[in-house]
Amino acid sequence: MPGQHEQEIRWRYYKPSPESDTFRKELKGLPNTARAVLLATMNAYRHGRALPRQVDHLGDGIYEIRITDKGNEYRVLFHHPVARYAVALHAFQKKTQKTPPAKIKLAKRRRSIWDSGPH
Predict the structure, then answer these.
(1) Cα distances (angstroms) measured from residue 62 to each of 29, 111, 117
(2) For 13-63, how does the pLDDT look when each residue is reduced to its tens digit (9 = 90+)?
């Protein structure tokens, strides 16, 4: 089950260069309450306590944290390359029924950049 795991993990945020803090900027751009709920859900995932409805595997190693705040849907797309950490790749407000393919494609591109860099 995606939201449960035995070992506590650490979150790393997508940052393609030392000067660019891309994921944190996206997260800060969300409403305060949505950001707080996303971070709380990420923390629950970190400790293996996220509910099944809060985490989904989208395929090809990309997962999503899913929350609803004040009738709006928000997502954090991430990948989990090793057991000890997960990489938060993209945070956004979802405005369509399904997670847009362009958002998944962006997460995959960021994953490739992350995987090819020194971390």
Answers:
(1) 22, 9, 18
(2) 999 888 889 999 999 999 999 999 999 999 999 999 999 899 999 999 999
The answer to the question of residue 97 being in a domain is yes
64 phi/psi in degrees, rounded to 5: -135, 140
Q: How many helices (H) and strands (E) does the chain have?
A: 3, 5
Residue 90 lies in a domain: yes
Q: Report CA-CA distances (Å) from 87 to 36, 62, 72.
A: 18, 10, 24
**How many domains in the chain?**
1
> 79 and 111 in contact (C-beta within 8 Å)?
yes
Tell me the residue ranges of DSSP E strands in 1-119: 10-13, 55-59, 62-69, 72-82, 85-94
> Token pair of 104, please?
């998944």
Q: Which residues contact 54 (CB under 8 A, 6 or more apart)?
A: 3, 41, 44, 45, 65, 66, 67
